[in-house]
Amino acid sequence: MAADVASDLRSGIGARLRAGRERTGLSLLQAAEKLHVDPQVLEALEAERFEELGATVFVRGHIRHYAELVRESVLELLGLYTASTAVAAAPDLTRVPSAGSDPRRPLVGGVIVVIAVGVIGSVWWVIENYRSPLPQPVATAPEPREPSAPAQPAATTAATAAAAVSAEAPKAVVSATPPRGAEAPPGVDAEAAAAARRTDEVDHRTIAITLHFTSDSWAEVYDAHGERLLYDIGSADSVRKLSGVAPLRVVLGNAPGVALEVNGHAIPVPSGDTHDGSAQFQVSRSGRVLASRLAATDGQRR
What we know:
By secondary structure, the protein is of the alpha+beta class. The chain has helices spanning 2-10, 13-24, 28-35, 39-46, 56-69, 74-88, 105-131, 154-168, 190-205, 298-301, and strands at 206-213, 217-222, 228-234, 238-245, 248-252, 258-262, 265-267, 279-283, 289-291. The longest helix is centred in the middle third of the chain and has 27 residues, at 105-131.
């Protein structure tokens, strides 16, 4: 019953969004490019398949941005979605089990049986151990002692110790990661040394950034290999910490609502030449921020 009411409340959200898009003369692909989202997200909104968009906070963010783009009432559409989620969350009293049937009773009975078997087994073990005769000690003949070596003078002992130290000195452990360009010493795996050098190089190229969202904003971050580190809506008063191989490519849908830190230092977000408040820029290995015209989808294709 609650599911039917929630469906009735949701009906109209997708239709109004689709009508607003058509009224503004935008295709589905054009609207997706302006919002920096996949076209499948807008298809799910217009078809009211909100469960495909994840948590409620993400659905509300998508509805808000789509409504603003097609000039629909944000408050009305969010009100319809909130009412539908509240109705869907109401408990179904017809499925509450009756007081006479307690599903925990079989479990309690099984626990009691296990405890009883354990107690009986412990008592049997104690009785059997007390009945068995104690082991008698076996007499053994004393082992013959080797004649002790005569004491050596102190000077001879010191000389022997010094010779042992000098003999062990050439066996010092060699570092497993030789300098770049040098061959691995004997006894060290060359492949392991090369892997350690590559890891050290990647660590030197890794850079950390922090995004502080003062208002809702779409955010995308890609590393130097094109791997997507972030592709989501950052809600207001939230923080996202990321790290990857520099240079990093960053796309922000609402740049004035985001503050940027690079390796713990506050860096201004470049405004770019867009009129919708979005920004696209790169963060180099040295922490410099450079404005960029790269599209958000370039990182996915690479």
